[in-house]
Every structure is written in C-alpha cells, then in structure tokens.
Amino acid sequence: xxxxxxxxxxxxxxxxxxxxxxxxxxxxxxxDHYITPSDIFFKRNHLPVPQVDPEVYRLHVDGVPGVxxxxxxxxxxxTRFPKHTVTxxxxxAGNRRSEMxxxxxxxxxxxxxxxxxNATWTGAKLRDxxxxxxxxxxxxxxxxxxxxEGLDRDVTGTSYGASIPLNKAFSEDGxxxxxxxxxxxxxxxxxGYPVRVVVPGTVxxxxxxxxxxxxxxxxxxSSHWQQNDYKGFSPATDWDTVDFKSAPSIQxxxxxxxxxxxxxxxxxxxxxxxxxxKGYAWSGGGREVVRVxxxxxxxxxxxxxxxxxxxxxxxPAPSPQPGRAWAWKLWELTxxxxxxxxxxxxxCKAVDNSYxxxxxxxxPIWNLRGVLSNAWHRVKVTVKD
Length: 385
Ligand code: MTE
Ligand code: MO
Description:
binds molybdenum atom, Sulfite Oxidase, Chain A, domain 2, globular, 5-stranded antiparallel β-sheet, 22 strands, Immunoglobulin-like
C-alpha cells in the first residue's frame, strides 16, 4: 500500500477521501482561528505523501535561457536567501463543490465550505531563487511560465505538476515563496515537507507541495492538472463536448465568502432574542475584501458584518498594500431575530476592492468539474417559540 507511510491526521477532520487523503475541518472550528492551526488546515492530496529526507533533498532549477541547470539543498534555501513571512489563504478550486453537485451532478471530491484555510508561510522568495539561478528580467521575452514539479508520484512515476505565469513568479510584490515553514514550524508532511510553493492569491492547485523541480519555460506545465483539469466551462458544456484546450487554466480565484456559523438546521429559541452569524471572506489576486453583507431573509434585506483581520482580541493587522491582500477576513454579525419568522434563510456575500461580488445562485456558474463555486452562501435555520 503506497499510502502506508502517510502521516497521522487530526480526528476532527472531515474526510472526503482516505487514499489519497483529502479532508476539511468542521466549519465552526475553521472560523475560531484567524490563522488556521496546521493540523486542521484542509488537506488536498492527489497521491501518496512522499517521504523526503531533508539531508538528501535537492531542488532543481532548469530552463533559464542560456544557463546550466542548478540545484539547491534545503540548507542553502534556508541560509542563502532572505527569509520572508507571508500570511496567505489557500483555497482549493473545488471548495463548495457539493453545492454545485446539488444543482446537477459534477465530477470531483464533494467539498463543503472548508476547503480553504489561512496560514503564515516562511521561506525564500521564488524571485530571489530565480535570480540566483541566473534568471534576468530581460529573459521574460523568451519565457512566460514557471513550472513546478512535486516529489509525489503515481504508479507510473508521473509526479504532480503545475505552473504559474512568469510575471507572478518574478514580481517583487507577487510574494511567491518557496516555503519551508508553516505557522512558525517545519512544514508538516501533508503540506509539503520540506519545501512547497506558496502562490498567494492563486488557486490551491498551483501551490505545489514537496517541490522537486522548477522549470522556466515558454509553455505552461504539461501536467494533467494544468492542461486537463482546474479549468472553468459554461453550464452548457458536458463531458461529450468539453475541450480542455479551449479554456485557460485557473490562476487567480474569484471573490468568495461563506457562513461557518450557525450550521444548516440549527434550532433557535425565540427567547434568545438574537442570532450571531460568522464566516470567512477572501478574494484572489491580492484583491482585498472590503465588505460582507448578511441577510436573514433570503436576500431581501441586508446588514453589514464586522470584518476581522487578525486573531480575535488582538490589534488587527494593518491594511495590506493595495494588490497584496493575500489573507482572508473573518466576519461576524449579531442581529435581533426577525419577529414572527419561523424559518430564516441566512445569506452572505462579499465585495472586494475591485467591487467584484458573488453571483446570487449556482445554476449560471455550474460547470461539469464543479470548480469556482462562489454563489451567495445560504443557510436555513429554524426559530421556535
Ligand atoms: N502539490 C503536490 N505535489 N501534490 C498535490 O496533490 N495538490 C494541490 C496543491 N499542491 C497537490 C499539490 C491542490 S489541488 C491544492 S488545493 C493544494 O495543494 C492543497 O494544499 P494543502 O493540502 O496544503 O491544503
Ligand atoms: Mo485543489
């Protein structure tokens, strides 16, 4: 069993698939922490977790025009390059897929609303490593992508791979890291020990774990996950007509928010007088969430939630530099129970600083792979007299 050496996981995780291991935390635990503890951070593996000896580990850098391939040891990555720490949210393209599946069946793991988490990541900037490997800005006329290959392999020896645009990889404020720490400790095995790429603002799939190789290239990664997966399509496209070449790979994600509390079906006593609603909100590409609107009546009337950008009770983090809002915001609203209503449909929607907002329903954004599911999140609860 190639999975026999997989690490032990936290028992509270909700498992979507055991081999490979895919799991998300219960929503109400997720919004208890601004920085998600590593053991409950969602886990999305396509393959067995590789066992990597840190002494033997080498990162290969290839494809820099006119320059010989180079290798770096873990020690070199840690000591030769300035150490940067970035707080960034990772979200799987399939987060909230189960809501899409309810409209019409889609292919993929049935994620709830918690295939998203937030951590602090520490490592070398990819930009600095590319510079050390001989890359120069003028080479960006000959190369457009940076490919990443994982050390995890399937039975045929094919490894997980993905790529990002070169301009994101090389940009000074793109904050792309070759991270060797998560939340102040060595990366856990499930999250890419000893080194993973962290591409802030970009879909989880490009944040390659157990990083073995970086290739600067004209082409995107030829990996299945870059070419024939993680793309969006029209609701009209089905498995007979889909042409994966016709759509761009998902990179920056759209605006997202969801309600983590209360849970669907919760019973409230009218005597309690009020209801507290909690959730998260995040947008891709470094766009900052500027507002979250909450409705208790299915979207007829709205109230503005309070945003939280830091651990509760601590001084909130200063506003990020525009375009570099990589971390989510947690939010909360306490409001009187609407008089008379027996059932409440609680809804949330977020707005980012480009004034992007979420679509109100799922059918117009339904797609066969169930990705990019970001409609208004709706939770029904009951009030008893
Ligand atoms: N990297 C490797 N090497 N293998 C993988 O299976 N999964 C990707 C990405 N990087 C994956 C990978 C996907 S689809 C997601 S959503 C994120 O890792 C999940 O990161 P996490 O498990 O740290 O939450
Ligand atoms: Mo993912």
